[in-house]
Structure formats: C-alpha cells, structure tokens
Design brief:
The chain is an alpha/beta fold. The chain has two domains: 2-168 and 356-374, Rossmann fold (3-Layer(aba) Sandwich), CATH 3.40.50; 172-353, 3-Layer(aba) Sandwich (Rossmann fold), CATH 3.40.50. The protein is 45% helix and 15% strand. It has a seven-stranded parallel sheet with strand order 3-2-1-4-5-6-7, with helices on both faces. The chain has a six-stranded parallel sheet with strand order 10-9-8-11-12-13, with helices on both faces. The radius of gyration is 21 Å and the shape is elongated. 47% of the residues are buried.
Length: 375
C-alpha cells in the first residue's frame, strides 16, 4: 500500500502529517500489516530529518501562491503552479498511491488535481474554523473530510465530514515536569508565562512582551519563543530594558523551542500567551489557561475565528491585536492567574476541547481506504 501526504509548507500543515504517520506506524504494528510506502509531496521538505525518521520519501512539487490582491508575483506563481500540475501528473502516475491525505493550502493543489484526474481516493483535513479555498474545492471529490473545529463541518457535505480535532504528535501531548526547572534555569515558587508566536515568531507579541517586561518579571518568569529572525533584536532590547532590574534572570528568550524544551515549558507553565494557529491544540492538550492573540489579516481571517471558537469552549481569553497594549496584557494575566477558580475552569475546558485521538482516527481511515483501493 502507498500513502501520499501533501499540504502547505508550514508547521501547522507538516506536523499533523507526522502525527498521522506515527499513528499509522502504531496501527500497522498492532494489526500486523505490511508497512506502507509513505510519500510527502510539497514545494519543500520542511523538516528533512523528521521525514527520514519516519521513512517518508519527499516528492518535490512546485506550487505558486494565489494572492487576493494585484501583484506581478501572481503571474509568476501561476506559471509555477502550471508547471507543478504537469510535474505532479507524471509523479503521481509513477507512484500511483492508494490514497492521498491532504492538509490543504495552495501547495497541495497540484497533487490533489492529479489525484482527482487519476481517480485516486482523497482524504482531507481542515485545521481552521473556516476552511481554505483548496479544501473547499477538494471536498467535492474527497472520500472523507476531517475537521479540527466543529464550526468547520458546516462548510462541507454532511455525509463526508467528521469532527476529529487536530492530529498531534506524541511528543507534543506529553508535558514534562520532571527536571524542567533545572533545564530551563527557573525558580520553583514563581509562576511561569509561556509566550509562543509560532515557529516564525510574532513581532506584535514580541513588542507587547518587551514593553511589559519590567512589570512581568516582577511577578512572573517568562519563557519567550521569539522566532529565529527576531532573537538577536529581542535579546539586545531586553538587556537594556531590564538593566538594573533585580529579576533579569526571570526572562528566558529562545529563538525556537525544540520538542524537549517545549514539553518542559508546558509542564511548568501557569499561562500561555499565543497566536491562534495550530498551537491552540497543543495548549488544549496541556490543559493550561491561555490568552490568544489572533493574527489579523490571516487568510479567511481564520485565526480570529479559531480563537473565538476556543474561547467559546471556555478555555482562553481572546485579545485582538489592535487592543494589545501593556495595560490590557498585564490586566488579563493578573485577572486569570489571580483567580484560582477561573484557572481551574479554563484548564478543564482546555482538556475537554482537545481530541487526543485525532491522529489515530485519521490513520485508521487512511488504512481502510488505502487497503480497499489496493484490493
């Protein structure tokens, strides 16, 4: 059996695919099946080491980005997508997978089109509360559709859709408390704030944290993922801001938190401050209260809709970016952490919102559809 994965070139698309791969590996062992051949089609491998670790063959497929505003880049990307479609037709023909799993995004379009033309079964997953254009199109011929947010189900054919939640890698589901304080060089009795701006960081979040830093470190310890492009600037400014402070060592900036550092941060954090991408599902799995600051202007305004869907579950507070001031941020942090009943309620709501079996549900569907097509 051959399974082909595809999706946009971001961690929000890539890591759920890895989570599904982990679940496939477990099911194959449990059911004593022959190991399937796994492929990942995209413009770039995103994380080559992760692909190698799971014996996934990378297949390069060009794809252009469609912008909703006038740009000469649209012309070049149209040509790039056209070449990607031609290349994907040849690639898919020679691989001829038994099932294609797509996370959506512009990068998945050439592969999905080829799968449709060759009548290969397709299963799609939508990460956001409002689906992207490629997934809405692919839903017309997909065998099954999985969604992360219950609101997204309304955009798809009722008989095909299932609310599964977002696939999570095993490592991200397991916060690690043992040894975390020593590893991160933190004090045991001071509450911890974890700031996550996504793998690329978030300038607006960085600015809000820096402007509030003297007040924050007076009461809390701050683990701050700044993004690789921002770390030098943030570290330099933080040194100046905290010059003379008695609590300089309470601020811990990181360009990027690897799996171990993130698990340990999750194990000891009191509150998470984050964007509203796929990180929401990690936070929910950890069962930690959060302040969610959606990225304005994201495609389909999906981050705002994601954030308010999570807020309706009672697991977070949403602060829109245009309201993100030093006063508002400090006030919301103090309000949440100063109310034990509220933090417990938010933690419980977060755990209820998380669906830790999402990867297993999707993996099972892929194996079922793939085996049927293979026979």
């Amino acid at each position: 059996m051959k399974i082909l994965f595809t999706g946009g070139g971001t961690g929000g698309h890539f890591y759920p695919i890895i989570a599904v791969t982990e679940a496939i590996e477990d099911l194959v062992r449990a059911q004593k099946l022959i190991d399937p051949e796994l492929y990942y089609a995209a413009p770039s491998p995103y994380d080559s080491e992760m692909l190698r670790a799971h014996n996934i063959t990378f297949v390069h497929i060009n794809a252009g980005k469609l912008r909703r505003y006038f740009s000469l880049l649209n012309v070049f990307d149209f040509i790039k997508t056209g070449w990607g479609i031609i290349r994907s037709l040849f690639t898919i023909f020679f691989i001829y997978p038994d099932v294609v799993f797509s996370k959506g995004g512009y990068a998945s379009f050439p592969t999905l089109l080829a799968a449709r033309l060759f009548d290969i079964p397709v299963i799609i997953h939508e990460s956001d509360a409002v689906p992207g254009k490629v997934n809405v199109w692919a839903a017309k011929f997909a065998k099954k559709i999985a969604v992360s947010y219950p609101e997204a189900a309304a955009f798809f054919p009722k008989e095909k859709v299932a609310y599964t939640g977002n696939p999570m890698r095993k490592s991200s589901r397991l916060p690690e408390k043992e040894g975390a304080l020593e590893f991160l060089k933190l004090q045991p009795a001071v509450p911890v704030l974890l700031v996550l701006g996504g793998s690329q960081g978030a300038v607006a979040l960085n600015e809000a944290i820096l402007s509030s830093l003297p007040q924050l470190v007076a009461s809390y310890q701050v683990i701050h993922q700044t993004g690789s492009a921002n770390i030098t600037d943030v570290e330099g400014r933080a040194r100046l801001i905290l010059e003379g402070s008695a609590h300089t060592d309470r601020y811990k900036p990181f360009a990027y938190l690897n799996d171990l550092a993130l698990r340990m941060s999750a194990g000891i954090t009191s509150l998470v401050i984050s964007r509203a991408g796929s990180t929401i599902f990690e936070i929910a799995t950890w069962g930690v209260p959060s302040i969610i600051i959606p990225l304005p202007g994201a495609a389909e305004d999906h981050q705002t809709k994601n954030a308010f869907s999570y807020a309706r579950a009672g697991a977070c507070v949403v602060v829109e970016q245009n309201n993100l001031t030093e006063t508002v941020l400090l006030s919301e942090i103090g309000r949440i952490l100063g109310d034990t009943e509220l933090t417990e309620k938010m933690s419980k709501a977060a755990k209820t919102f998380s669906r830790i079996d999402a990867a297993e549900l999707i993996a099972s569907a892929l194996l079922s559809v793939g085996l049927s097509h293979e026979s």
